[in-house]
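I have been asked to look over a protein record a colleague put together. Thanks in advance; the entry in question is below.
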Amino acid sequence: MSSRLPILVDLKFDPETVARILKTAFADRGSINLADPASKALDLTGIDYALLWKPDADIFKRAPNLKVLFSGGAGVDSILSIPDLPDIPIVRFADRSLTTRMSEWVVMQCLMHLRLQRAHDRDQRDRVWGKLVPPEAAEVTVGVMGLGILGQDAVAKLRVMGFNVIGWSRSKKQVEGIETFDGPQLDTFLSKTDIVVGLLPLTPDTTGLYDKAFFKRLRQGGALGKPVFINAGRGKSQVQADIVASIESGVLGGASLDVFEVEPLPANDPLWHLENVFITPHDAAISEENALFRHVETQIARLERGEPLQFVVDRKAGY
């Protein structure tokens, strides 16, 4: 299918790291790094493949004959929102390392809320020997929203830690060992949930999903007292003003956020100062560049052997 033309790369990651790794990546065909000023003079009309993350808007005018797009992350909303997106396959990034990193973050956040870590931090600052008696994991129900590769791995690892785990997805999925719910059963799912974990892609249906009305449907009076909101999916799925209001009013007992409506999170955002809110800078599951490039090489090799691509995005579903 390809005459070993270079792979077009437009990644908004750390430019020095990307440039360094690209010197040896894609050894059999090479790459064109659009972060390199010299690339502006190149003719891209013959390029077959592009690896993109939040690409420049003119990329499809410069490279009009692309055959496959590879996303630089598990999410693809930054690509699907580009005007004049060509009707070609889009392959999202799925990798053991990315999945493992996400599950580590989710488990860590659930444990910090379970074990009242903010209270321990406060006591340490104040030099108070304040012993606490948190509930056991088995007394807390974690509800995972999104049961794709990331969600199912998080479910498995939360179960190992002893949490009672349930799951919700837009369409019904069977996941061994847990009770699952689908679209119309959202209210039932939320009513059983003490810690809700958002791992959903950004679609029109999930934009602004996590709002005041959503938080009020979570279980009150469970083992943690107040429910907790954890989101490592997409920032535009949450209404941040409603997170703040729900914590201040006592509807929510806390939150852990890795994604935000605007990134970086502005210095004057009230989330920075709220008690029992953990903030991380969208690094829960960073795409490791070597793994990403190996993933692209694997998928191109499959295609050129006549095998189907894996992890192809369903444009109607948005993921």
In short: The radius of gyration is 21 Å. The first strand starts at residue 7 and ends at 11. Residues 7-95+287-304 form a domain with the Rossmann fold fold (CATH 3.40.50.720). DSSP finds ten helices and twelve strands in the chain.
